[in-house]
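The pair is quoted verbatim as follows:
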Amino acid sequence: MTSFFSKRRAFHAAALSATGLAVFAATALGVSSTAHAQAYPTKPIRMVLGYPAGSGIDAVARQVAARLEKEAGQTVVVDNRAGALGNIAADMVAKSPADGYTILFTPNSTHAANIHLFKKLPFDPVKDFQPVGTVASLGFVLLTNPEARPYKTVADLTATLKREPGKYSWGSGNATGQVAGELYKTLAGVDAVNVPYKGVPQAMTDLIGGRIDFLFADATLAIPQLKGGRVRALAVTGKTRPTSLPDVPTMAEAGVPGYDLSGWFGIFLPANAPAPVLASLTGWLNTVTRDPAIAEFMRSIGAEPLPGGPADLATLVRTDTEKWGKIIRAAGITAE
């Protein structure tokens, strides 16, 4: 009998021990999984940008990156990979590990316009990316050189271009700027030669130097030059006047009916990024875009804060791809 009860006690002890080990293992795994999710990020995050340093989007990206560092507790490095209207940067991020350490800060060009401007993209704007959130909206400004050209209004410029079609040139440093100029030509019935640049800063340099006649530039880059008196603003491209340029008419107000063109900035991860990483980045970005200091900075350079999450950015990509397709076709732009 004693032997029987001894064996029974030994059996229960072994069973309890096995159960305890299982519970411990499960708990340890849970803690390990949670710790892994909470650990992100454990190293610097690279924010890839498809435009050069000094461009309007670069100014916003660097402000967002600096504020994002405080939320993430890690350095956020802005990596400028300019070229092909942002496609080089987008392709790089699309092919990067989906671990949260490489993110794309981009305007609507890579995810709405370029699919209509290039015959084939090296990435899929929808399938290859995970939207994180929206950052800002902005319009463009039609600029001229007040010393080199006498135009004071859009009507002045339009009359000159109609008088001598094909004689004058205009610059574009990104997809939106190119479409903005082509849309103006179509709606106003004018002809001028497009000079494409790697970025808006280079186009601005040539406008100030008198080598091109007009330019559609990001408001973020136009405002500092306007304050310095080096350029003149004839109109803004959006439906309404921005807070930072209340005295500059819209293109529609300036005599080009039906003109309405604006853009946005957003952040994307490579597709299939882990859910905890996406949740962390979305939460941090939401805090950043709602920061009064960031909002004030954006407005001071011609942009407007546009807080929004993954669903908001996904909707913008879908609706703007259709919208930009219509605008590009109406402007008669053919894919390269």
